[in-house]
Amino acid sequence: MAAGATVLGARDSSQIGCADEPGRSARDAISRSELFGTLYLLGIANALAALIFPAIHSEDVWQAFRQVRDIDVVLMASAVGIYLLRQSPHAPVECCDWLMAAAVAFLLLVPHRAASWIAVTGLALYAICRDRRSTTAVAAASVFFAIAASSFWGLVLVQTFASTLLAWDAALAAALLDVLTHGAVDRTGNVIVTSDQTTLFVMVWCSFVPNLLYGFLCWTVIARAVRPAWRPMDLFALLAVAGLILTTNTLRLALMGLSADTYEWVHGSVGGNVFNVGLLLVIAAIALRSAAPAASSLGHERSAPRGGEPVREGGELRRRDRRSLRAG
């Protein structure tokens, strides 16, 4: 009995000593996911504020909101990213993480939204490499990377290679329009002239690239919210989304050149909303289908043949139970 009391006292003293270890509570006060989540939100808020605040003085707030591709989707995607980060296992913040946080904070101090999007992009890529063993942390970083790509990098890419990309979009639309009208359709760069001398200009926001990145953002948010883990089959889902957006974007541009009425319907607010909602529903269906669990993984355990070993998780536990029973 005395020995038992001695052992218990030693155990208690070791626990107290562990709790009072100097520097332990300070090191674990904030986790890596909490630090990165705060930086993500600051970066996105800073980028949006760089557009909204100047517009308040010019009394053109709605125009500023339209410069960010579907701000409601950006906010929803940010919420999903934070949710995934909160599901990540606790990981302490190390020296390299603080250095990365300092670099992001420095970029956030630059009074230009481009610096904020660069900070979000860099932090997402760093998190993917840093937390590559954490499924939810990588999923969250993927979501924030897709936000930056859709809201900023797509526009940068189109503006940098505008002549080539817009001409390619116009060429596809002109080819389809020629089939629909059975008439001669001329194209010069990003300008399409139909047989009735209707002129159609393909502008930056009509390009395939921003729409593609927007579609990837929608797919990433839905798929990673349902199943955080990436699988090789996700590549085929992304290819399906790319093919869908290329086809629908070309069809939409061709319909604009049919007549003034179709242009007003397709390019107007009603037609644009119908197009966006329909596209989002199809992308959501692709995301849900690709994120569905495989048929082979639906069962938690499978029965093993008589005398054989279990083939599913839980087998080790059952083997331990058998040993315990035999030992008893």
- The separation of the N and C termini measures 25 Å
Arithmetic mean of pLDDT: 79
The secondary structure category is: mainly alpha
Number of helices: 14
The main pleated sheet reads as: 3 strands, antiparallel
Order of helices and strands: HHHHHHHHHEEEHHHHH
Strand content: under 5%
> Uncertain runs with pLDDT below 50, 5 residues or more?
1-26, 295-328
Shape: elongated
Number of β-strand runs: 3
The tally of domains stands at 2
What is the radius of gyration computed over CA atoms, rounded to a whole number of angstroms? 27 Å
Write out the strand line-up for the largest beta sheet, numbering strands in chain order: 1-2-3
The portion of residues assigned to helices is over 70%
Structural notes for this entry:
- Helix content is 72%, strand content 3%.
- With 328 residues, the chain is an all-alpha fold.
- It has 2 domains: 29-160; 161-292, no CATH class.
- Residues 1-26 and 295-328 have low confidence and may be disordered.
What are the SSEs and their pairings?
Elements: H1 2-19, H2 24-27, H3 32-58, H4 61-67, H5 71-86, H6 95-108, H7 113-130, H8 135-160, H9 162-181, E1 186-188, E2 191-193, E3 199-201, H10 208-226, H11 234-256, H12 260-267, H13 269-291, H14 315-327
Antiparallel strand pairs: 1-2, 2-3
